[in-house]
Design a protein that fits this description.
mainly alpha, disordered N terminus, single chain, about 0% strand, 12 helices
Length: about 325
């Protein structure tokens, strides 16, 4: 009787079995074994279509954020078109008025609403514009990485207050631009071992924060933020791991990547099932292994480039297909649990 309320899993084309199942549920309801509420849940579709309420909520969020973005772009284009005619104090005053307008709107609006979060998203965008305006007017001589680092730091309160995935995603982008620009000024650039390590550490910290306290930092129940941080972490470590087969200075990144595989696959398979994170981990593993295989064949086997490319292509094709099949079965199994 514990499984009465669950919908029977039948093949999509087996409509006769579906009719028998519905008839059995109706019979149990007539016998008093099921309440009308339990019958409605049992007959509900496995993946119900979104209702008008869901569409309105999604459009409200989309239009609110889009409107905030257009307002910020309008301010930027206004300054660009009237730059020579405006006094520097007028420029600063207008920029601060725009920032105050977004922040003031959030004070008036209902906390947690779509317009509230969109207003704070606009405030986060305008904060960067104010910093760029100050640097342009007074010619502070600061490098662009300092601008983005300051923007990320000043944006953090807006993201914490808004608890919006859009604000946190913007914070992630701005922080990475700051790091990439900073290491672009150093020998080796952002793809140096130090640059990739810094990116990996930053994304690992964000991933741990989003996984551990994501429900407190964001009101929207989604996996966007942990996946974004995981993508950044794996991108940095995978690139470093591929290079490590040719340069010993990247060996620490390969070791760190192996630990991420060990912990990540275990966590996202058993503790917090996430097919997308598992896919990122598996395909990263395939790419690093293919790079190592290419290095081994290039140094240990006397083969021409055409044969090497064919062997690597076959390896990537077979392993990717196997990973895709396993992920598909895992996803189907999760749906039937």
């Amino acid at each position: 009787m514990q499984k009465i309320g669950k919908r029977h899993q039948q093949p999509p084309l087996d409509w006769l079995a579906e009719l028998r199942s519905r008839d059995q549920l109706l019979s149990w309801t007539e016998q008093g074994l099921l309440t009308p509420a339990q019958l409605a849940r049992a007959l509900a579709p496995e993946h119900p279509a979104p209702t008008d309420r869901h569409w309105r909520a999604a459009l409200d969020r989309l239009l609110a954020y889009y409107g905030s973005l257009l307002l910020v772009l309008g301010v930027i284009f206004f300054f660009a078109f009237n730059w020579d005619e405006l006094h520097r104090l007028h420029k600063l005053a207008l920029a601060l008025v725009a920032l105050t307008g977004f922040a003031g709107a959030a004070v008036v609006l209902q906390s947690g609403s779509a317009l509230y979060r969109a207003s704070l998203f606009g405030a986060a965008l305008t904060t960067g514009g104010v910093l760029a305006l100050v640097g342009q007017i007074y010619q502070t001589g600061a490098d662009i990485w300092q601008l983005f680092a300051g923007w990320a730091a000043l944006m953090l309160p807006w993201a914490l207050i808004s608890r919006s995935a859009a604000c946190w995603a913007l914070f992630w982008v701005v922080l990475h631009v700051a790091l990439l620009r900073y290491f672009a000024l150093h020998p080796g650039g952002p793809t140096s071992a130090q640059g990739l390590t810094a990116l990996a550490v930053a994304d690992l910290a964000l991933l741990l924060v989003f996984e551990g306290a994501g429900h407190r930092l964001c009101t929207e129940l989604s996996r966007v933020l942990p996946r974004l941080a995981g993508f950044g972490l794996l991108s940095a470590l995978t690139l470093g791991g591929c290079i490590s087969w040719w340069q010993e200075g990247y060996l620490a990144l390969l070791i760190a990547l192996a630990l991420v595989y060990l912990v990540g696959i275990t966590v996202y398979l058993r503790w917090r099932r996430d097919a997308l994170m598992l896919a990122l981990l598996l395909y990263s593993l395939i790419g690093v292994t293919a790079s190592g295989l290419g290095r081994l064949l290039d140094t240990g086997v006397n083969a021409d480039s055409f044969m090497l490319l064919n062997v690597l292509g076959l390896f990537v094709l077979l392993t990717s297909a196997a990973a895709s099949l396993w992920l598909h079965r895992l996803h189907r199994g999760a749906q039937h649990e």
